[in-house]
Amino acid sequence: MSRYASDRRAIEALVRPTEVHRDIYIDEEVFELEMKHLFANTWVFVGHESQTPGKGDYITTEIGTQPVIMVRHTDGEIRVLHNRCPHKGTKIAIDRAGNTGKFFRCPYHAWSFKTDGCLLAIPLRKGYKDTGLEESESVKGMAPVGAVKNYRGFVFARLNAEGPDFEDFFGQSLSSIDNMVDRSPEGRLEVAGPPLRYMHRCNWKMLVENQTDTCHPMVAHESSAGTAIELWEQMEKPEGTKKPMAMEVIAPFMSPYEFFENMGIRTWPNGHGHTGVHHSIHSDYSAIPGYFEQMVAAYGEERARAILGENRHNTVYFPNIMIKGPIQQLRLFKPVAANRTLVESYIYRLVGAPDMLLERTAMYNRLINAPTSMVGHDDLEMYERAQEGLHSDGLEWVNVQRLYAPDENFDEIAVENGTTERQMRNQFHAWTKYMTMTMGGDA
Amino acid sequence: MAFPTRDDLIDFVYEEARMLDDGRFDEWLDLWTPDSFYWMPLDYNQQDDRHVTSLLHEDAFMRKLRIERFKGERTFSQKPKTRCHHVLQRPFIDHRDDEKGEYTTHTSFHYVETRLDDQILLAATARHELKLIDGRLKITHKRVDLLNSDAAFGNIQMFL
Predict the structure, then answer these.
(1) Are A106 and A198 members of one domain?
(2) Which residue of A377, A379, A382, A385 is the best one to mutate when testing the B interface, meaning the one whose CB has the most B CBs within 10 A?
(3) Count of domains forming chain A
(4) Fewer CB atoms inside 10 A, N or C side of chain B?
(5) Over the stretch A333-384, which tens digit does the pLDDT of each residue have?
(6) Which of A236, A349, A374, A380 best probes binding to B when mutated, by most B CB atoms within 10 angstroms?
(7) What domain range is A276 assigned to?
(8) Mind telling me how many Å the CA of A123 is from chain B's nearest CA?
């Protein structure tokens, strides 16, 4: 029995000002509607241009659950195509990255396509003479997605041909990507190695919400960050010994509530937002020798200070990525099923900056985001307990009430106390908007 | 031990795995030299342990932290605790230098980790670099390559 399909009222009823219904996380039909509407109406991150530097270079990935290929076309531009042969449906490529030369060739019947998706050739084509193939969908080749935008190296796509403009959708939130890229003296990032791939048996939105949840680190991560601080204090060491890089990375997770309250949260329209307006857990890292001088040479001192003085913590780009400007990282929360999410954590090299920065970035990724991470272990434990707990009939609603103010207007940019759950409410406001946008009926 | 025999080296590798399976973690920590590293690459044939992501690259402090965390009251992902189980193929002695007291072994193994109703099986290869110090073998470097290191995993909580 369908409870939600094409019923915008039923979808809207799942989100209240201070709470959301559990079906948002556990219902398979809601998940299918998210894939059909939310992930088709929004601009979703696909990849970084440095993953496909040369013509014919491609990666395979998903937008929501839709398999796509991101490829560098012969004109040098990046295209995003549905990864499906228009003949029998075979996936054209299944390796995660490769080079296809000037064209894709389906391994099943050798239909071939230019790297913009156009049909190039069909073997024994005379077999289609007078069959009306020219009027079919198949003859169009591999279908491109609705729209693609390469913003400073970060490639986003919208599956639907019609929908919000890229600039309208992201607005001023693009300042976080700007800051991450500007941290390169050359204004350029390059992906460094493959991503961590971490499977979570929970809904994708739990991960997105956790990115601006500042009341959990000192609780859930006490066992890793708290123990690290204790061990370091107990360790016999000469007076004034410098904290190792790993301690600098992990210790701030134990910062008190006050620290997180004062760091601030900023929300932008359409579900985007970030923690760390005034300072963050990344503010007090040691300076890397030579880096500031390179930045001053590239930008001048005032501008260099402004770029490096911005220490945003987590920036959420709705619906499903988070970036960390100060450590050049992007986490992609790929929905697989209502109760399954694949998290891919990428790191980037600041082109022209000292390697030691990349070393810290790689260390952060390993210590915090790996399936072998002590910090990740406790996060996953919480998500999976929540995914199971939501099936309890003790209560059907999830609370997102912290620092709620009546008449919140999510179309306005706001800066608030760093422990507010306003960003979660902002995401759900955007969720309803983009879920129902293409459902018909009256708004 | 004057110079370790082939059996001494093989026994060392087996004993190390048994310490992990038995939960004798403090003994296990004592097997390592102070500046040693435990490395688990993310990528097949990975050579760089610093400028791309690894699954683990743990110095003495991080290994100690991981072990201490297992013991904590508020270590939620370890309530209940994980157990592990190694099945080792006989280690190869890939390199021996009695003059320097340095030895390298290569060991294929299967590793099982369990918690609650979950159980995972991993196939892996360990490369131990050992050094004879004051008559005792110590680990200066251990590299563990998972056969499927590029696969999507849930939690892997113990040392392999």
Answers:
(1) no
(2) A377
(3) 2
(4) N
(5) 999 999 999 999 999 999 999 999 999 999 999 999 999 999 999 999 999 9
(6) A374
(7) 189-436
(8) 36
